[in-house]
Amino acid sequence: MNAKFLFIGSLNDFLNYKQKGKTLEVTFSGNPGIKDIIESLGVPHVEIQLIKVNSIPVDFSYHIRNTDKVEIFPFSSGVVPSEKDRPSFILDVHLGKLARYLRMMGFDSMYRNDFSDPELVTLSCKENRILLTRDIGILKHGCLRYGYWVRATVALEQAKEVASHYNLCTSVLPFSLCMECNSSLLKVNKSQIEEKIPPLTRKYYDSYSQCVNCHKIYWQGSHFERMNNLLKQICPQLN
């Protein structure tokens, strides 16, 4: 028995160059689930918005039949947990710089450089966090509802890609989160932290924020200008 599969748009990113844009003929026996066949072809379920079989929409519970013609469509923009006001993320061990950019934009982004794959999946499922990864395989885990394979390999381009895919630039809250530990920043009086500020900084700056968790101190020095310029590169509409 066989069925024909056609992947639309960005889903072709997961196929090899000989398969891209082509109708793929899949031979099978029995009555396999459509999700299993799609993922065996390399495409993770979390990147799929719509499946049509013989022009009729179906879900992942559908079982393939002989001569079925299947079309698989991607999300035009990323799906986020509907119960959250703002998307939150968890990132794999390869995406530390991207995590810092997302935090700079004000988006809750959980990251550790020693996260195991099971930990990433468990936390994503438990806390409804979008799993961002460079590992396609992890996105095929059955419990995952929200996830995205980051195509770019350079951190700034990754930030632009994720911001575009999830339409983040309309709701940035710049410099509201600690870039080190992802906790909230609060304004503090200079007098409260004076002994912790370098002498020249203390002399020239009067406005400070501090992380509620790791207590890192932030001020609007030259580093702030650099970050602000990076933010405008990620979201040009902020210029």
Please give the alpha-carbon distance between the first and last residues.
57 Å
Mean of residue pLDDT? 94
Strand order across the biggest sheet? 2-1-5-3-4
- Provide the low-confidence segments as ranges: none
State which percent range the strand residues make up: 15-25%
**How many discrete domains?**
2
Shape: elongated
Q: Which class of secondary structure composition applies to the elements?
A: alpha/beta
Q: Percent helix among the residues?
A: 25-40%
The DSSP helix count reads 7
Q: Please describe the biggest sheet, giving its number of strands, its sense, and whether it closes into a barrel.
A: 5 strands, mixed
Radius of gyration over all CA atoms, rounded:
22 Å
Order of helices and strands: EEHEEEEHEHEEHEHHEEH
Number of strands: 12
